[in-house]
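Data card: per-record layout.
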Amino acid sequence: MGIANKDRATFSIDPAVKQTLEERIPKSRRSAFVEEAIAEALRKEAIERLNRTLDHLAATSPKGGEDSVTLLRRLRREWDGRPAEVLDEG
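The structure for this 90-residue chain is written out next.
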């Protein structure tokens, strides 16, 4: 994956965090380090969101008598916006 496949992003971080990043991570590795850290944080957030959903799933009354597979497919479509055909093929 070369630089041509990357989008630039601009955001602000705490000066102390920036200083620590600059002290510990070589300049040539910083973008990859930040990308990996963000990806990991997003993965953890998705797991937390899924766990919250599953914790409340039992209390959800099925819409129109949905079985569990139909309910989970509908929820996945709502979360990620994939068309129904993508999930129905599996």
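Known properties of this structure: Residues 63-90 form one domain. The mean pLDDT is 81.

See the next section for split statistics.
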